[in-house]
Write a structure and sequence with these properties.
Shape: globular
CATH class: Alpha Beta
Strand order of the largest sheet: 2-1-3-4-5
Radius of gyration: 15 Å
CATH architecture: 3-Layer(aba) Sandwich
CATH topology: Rossmann fold
Strand content: 15-25%
Length: about 140
């Protein structure tokens, strides 16, 4: 089963957390695609950016699930985009929010990101159970 790990990757703590999540999922037998393991922007050319974008989109199209890391007061822009694109493709999306801060007094995350989720999990064990128990319509 292929999992697209949609996650912020802009500091060492985020990358370390993402690598830990990916490693644990792989131990469970999942095939994980993680952007930080792919080529990063080196030259900043439009061609390079387009190639990275297209590679990301192709990985989304080929996945069975999207796991979105939703920590923080606001979801990272790239993760939000990937979730929207995955929803448009009809891919099941699982959210992982280990951060206890909330978006508002009535929402853990923005409702436009919460409603498409098949599960909003607080830890990786919950994610694994959600994915293994998911039955498509």
């Amino acid at each position: 089963m292929k999992i697209f790990l949609a996650a912020p990757l802009f500091n060492e703590a985020e990358r370390d957390f993402n690598a830990k999540v990916a490693a644990n999922l792989r131990k469970e037998g999942f095939d994980v695609w993680l952007a930080q393991e792919q080529p990063f922007i080196k030259t900043g050319s439009a061609e390079e950016k387009r190639s990275i974008f297209n590679h990301d989109i192709e990985a989304l199209k080929k996945c069975d699930f999207v796991l979105a890391i939703l920590d923080g007061l606001d979801v990272e822009a790239g993760v939000a985009f990937e979730m929207g694109y995955a929803k448009a493709l009809g891919k099941p999306i699982v959210g992982l929010k280990t951060d206890y801060r909330t978006f508002s007094n009535i929402e853990s995350i923005n409702l436009m990101l919460e409603v498409p989720l098949i599960c909003l999990c607080n830890n990786l064990n919950e994610v694994i159970v959600c994915i293994r128990n998911y039955k498509s319509c």
